[in-house]
Design brief:
Chain A: Keywords: 2Fe-2S, Iron, Iron-sulfur, Metal-binding. The structure holds 2 protein chains of 2 kinds. Chain A is α+β, with helices and mostly antiparallel strands. Helix content of chain A is 17%, strand content 19%. Chain A is built from 3 helices and 5 strands, in the order E-E-H-E-H-H-E-E. Chain A has a 5-stranded mixed β-sheet. The structure holds flavin-adenine dinucleotide and FE2/S2 (inorganic) cluster.
Chain lengths: 108, 410
């Protein structure tokens, strides 16, 4: 099972295995990792599942491109950066084994 | 988790109660947590019930807030199929429907709301349905085969979402609304008209200004909806979606202040400092709007769950949020930021016939109070920021699509 590393804003790391087909957001919620709120449950409607994708992963194949709905939602999310993504829009595949995502300071 | 002998009991295992339990653990609560819920399954999301679930596009697993094993893993004692029947505030204990008693240090009431029952002749016939729980949704799903005729009483969000899903399944749908427009209670007239036209374009018949007198029967099952003007709308099933009523009796019986919901402050505290209330069952302050209101939305349930969990764990209170809501119908994504209290003017940004627009509701001084966005998530997100900052905008700038949302929100 692919392993994903979630880094809280305070530096705390959580390394968990997330089944292929689930989203990076679900991996955090199902393991109760603080820092990803996911208020809309993965509908790309809330932007409270915002993460920064570790630079090493940004141009790897396997990371789905930013969709237009995701881009609109990110446009005003709290503290966005060029490496911002909505974690509910990243489906876990074998190719994402080892992915590292970092949490912003807040989701609201 | 054994050092802390304190106990949080959560009454109601829905979106708010289930989330409060998880947030307590996220914030480091070391004491015991008992989550008591009347429904037979772990906490789940209701929004898909009228959308993906009805259309057969969701699974029980995808509906659950967290997988069933999460609760034992996190040291949360989930008691499904169990009701809290009474609160003894002096003894700090609750009684459960299975006869057990639980003492608490903190009690969180997350009792939700129930579908409003109309005193309508024929209400108890077969195939007269409501839509609040997964059990309700399954009954509705069972009657929604192609060519089935569904009469929806009430043109609110749940009725309209169910109508859209029923159309996707090939059923014929008539929406019957007492007011002169659908969504009358929750949206402005421009949005109501847009949704009305869109539903009609999808083959839904909409009867407004229609009074329902009774439900006609054939063999104990509903066969038609009789209207005040004498007409009968024939149908194979009826969905009644005329709003919800807060489940506040448990709190009222315990002497807690209630007024269309359990009254709470910004830390989700009731007037008993050991008792909190969160979600659809509360009447809460809205600091941005300087008033109290009862909100029925997932974001509200989660915001209050965060408030209660933070207070119980001795953490700083979360910053107040701009209330928001979403609804999906056909290929339309509606997102609403804020509430149109005190709004005197509505400004359209975008293209209504093209189904990509936002309605900005302004107070007399130009302060943006609410933004209703259809397939316009940038306007929704920008609107949230503008409302949070109490910004004033002019009609001319909002209407001007050459002024970007970034500029409007700056
Ligand atoms: C079909 C449908 C679609 C919706 N769509 C959207 C949407 O798109 N967006 C959105 O933001 N919101 C939507 N909502 C609203 C949203 O689901 C609610 O606001 C949310 O569920 C509120 O959570 P809650 O925990 O306060 O209440 P609930 O989810 O109702 O949970 C309360 C729980 O407490 C239980 N309970 C009650 N009394 C007791 C007792 N005495 N003892 C033990 N348990 C008890 C109830 O059985 C229930 O399981 C929708 C609602 C429905 C029904
Ligand atoms: S969970 Fe809401 S946008 Fe990702």
């Amino acid at each position: 099972m692919p392993s994903i590393t979630y880094v809280e804003h305070n530096g705390t790391e959580h390394v968990v295995e997330v089944p292929v087909g689930k989203s990076v957001m679900q991996g955090a919620v199902e393991n109760n990792i603080p820092g990803i709120d996911a208020d809309c449950g993965g509908e790309c409607a809330c932007a409270t599942c915002h993460v920064y994708v570790d630079a090493a992963w940004l141009d790897k194949t396997g990371l789905p491109p930013v969709g237009s709905q995701e881009a609109s939602m990110l446009s005003f999310a709290a503290v966005t950066q060029p490496d911002s993504r909505l974690s509910c829009q990243i489906k876990v595949t074998e190719a994402l084994d080892g992915l590292v995502v970092r949490m912003p300071e807040g989701q609201h | 988790m054994s050092q802390d002998s304190r106990h949080v009991v959560i009454a109601g295992a829905g979106h708010a109660g289930g989330s409060a339990a998880a947030m307590l653990r996220q914030l480091g609560w070391q004491g015991a947590i008992t989550l008591v819920g009347e429904e037979p399954i772990p906490p789940y999301q209701r929004p898909p019930l009228s959308k993906a679930w009805l259309k057969g596009e969701a699974t029980t697993e995808s509906l659950l807030l967290r997988p069933a094993h999460f609760y034992p893993d996190a040291g949360i004692d989930l008691r499904p199929g169990t009701r809290v029947t009474a609160i003894d505030r002096a003894a700090k204990a609750v009684t459960l429907s299975d006869g057990a008693a639980l003492s608490y240090d903190f009690l969180i009431l997350a009792l939700g709301a129930r579908a409003r029952r109309l005193p309508l002749p024929g209400r108890d016939l077969g195939r007269v349905l409501e839509l609040r729980t997964v059990a309700d949704a399954d009954q509705l799903k069972a009657v929604l085969h192609p060519d089935a005729r569904l009469a929806v009483i009430g043109g609110g969000y749940i009725g309209l979402e169910a109508a859209a899903s029923a159309r996707a399944l090939g059923a014929e749908v008539v929406v019957i609304e007492r007011e002169s427009r659908v969504l009358a209670r929750v949206a402005g007239p421009i949005l109501s008209n847009f949704f009305q036209d869109y539903h009609r374009g999808q083959g839904v018949a909409i009867e407004t200004d229609a009074q329902v007198i009774e439900l006609d029967a054939a063999d104990g099952t509903v066969a038609g909806v009789r209207l005040g003007d004498g007409r009968v709308i024939p149908c194979d099933a009826t969905l009644i979606g005329v709003g919800v009523v807060a489940n506040e009796a448990l709190a009222r019986d315990a002497g807690l202040g209630c007024d269309n919901g359990i009254i709470v402050d910004l830390a989700a505290r009731t007037d008993d400092p050991a008792i909190f209330a969160v979600g659809d069952c509360t009447n809460r302050p809205l600091p941005l709007y300087g008033r109290m209101a009862r909100l029925e939305s997932v974001p509200n349930a989660l915001e209050q769950a965060r408030q209660a969990a933070s207070q119980i764990c001795g953490k700083p209170p979360p910053a107040p949020e701009v209330p928001w809501f979403w609804s999906d119908q056909y290929d339309l994504r509606l997102q609403i930021a804020g509430l149109p209290f005190d709004a005197t003017e509505t400004v359209v940004r975008g293209d209504i016939p093209g189904a990509k627009f936002a309605l900005f509701h302004l107070a007399a001084d130009g302060t943006v109070r609410a933004v209703e966005a259809v397939n316009a998530s940038t306007e929704f997100m920008g609107g949230r920021r503008i409302i949070a900052r109490g910004k004033r905008l002019s009609r001319r700038r909002i209407e001007d699509m050459s002024v970007s949302m970034q500029e409007l929100a700056a």
